[in-house]
Write a structure and sequence with these properties.
By secondary structure, the chain is of the alpha/beta class. The chain is built from four helices and 14 strands. Helix 4 links the parallel strand 5 and strand 6. It is globular.
């Protein structure tokens, strides 16, 4: 699990989300350490330039980097997670606030989800997931919102099962948001496609 320095939502719901997210290894990116401490969680590693804190935390688990750097704090945290052999990574936060940061974080989860690493970025309201060709089941509930966007120029052969607006062997592009604001009919949606990269957003509330 990676806890970022920006998490939208109510305090109690953020704390609950952090405590309830199962993780074998916990990394805080910069000010994410504040959320971890508030939720009573001790991270394995803390990495960042700590500009959002104004000071670097103390401890053997702290990695301080220069403010002027090529990689963002989240990129550094993702690299560390993969170096520690993570195959499934949950990022708490990173959605909302500055739009450029959110877009950059979505690009990050696309980049770092290569080679079979599954990455989900969540907050109390929503989750963002990268899907590559094949079939995947998404859990939800009747009426819950579900959107899918092409990250690559095209996603081909896109098929939904269990969605209010079904698709069958369809092609969507990254220049038109055809997949926005679908809904779960029941407890899950099955998504499959042949080529491309899909960004899947589930709105939890």
């Amino acid at each position: 699990m990676i806890i970022t320095s920006y998490i939208e939502g109510e305090k109690d719901k953020i704390d609950e989300l952090i405590r309830d997210t199962a993780a074998d290894f916990i990394i805080c990116a910069d000010g994410g350490v504040v959320y971890a401490e508030r939720a009573g969680i001790t991270p394995d590693l803390i990495v960042g330039d700590f500009d959002s804190l104004g000071h670097a935390p103390k401890g053997d688990n702290v990695i301080k980097v220069p403010v002027e750097k090529d990689d963002t704090d989240l990129q550094l945290a993702l690299s560390l997670a993969i170096e520690n052999h993570a195959k499934e990574i949950t990022i708490i936060g990173g959605i909302g606030g500055r739009v450029d940061h959110t877009i950059g974080n979505i690009q990050n989860i696309v980049h770092y989800s290569e080679n079979g690493v599954e990455i989900n970025m969540i907050d109390p309201m929503q989750s963002i997931t990268v899907q590559r060709p094949g079939t995947r089941i998404y859990k939800g509930g009747a009426g819950m919102k579900f959107s899918a966007f092409a990250h690559t120029p095209e996603v081909t052969g896109l098929t939904y099962k269990g969605a209010y607006y079904p698709l069958n062997n369809h092609t969507i592009t990254n220049s038109f948001p055809l997949g926005i604001s679908n809904e779960f009919v029941d407890s899950q949606i099955e998504v499959s496609f042949k080529t491309g990269i899909l960004i899947v957003v589930r709105t939890l509330l």
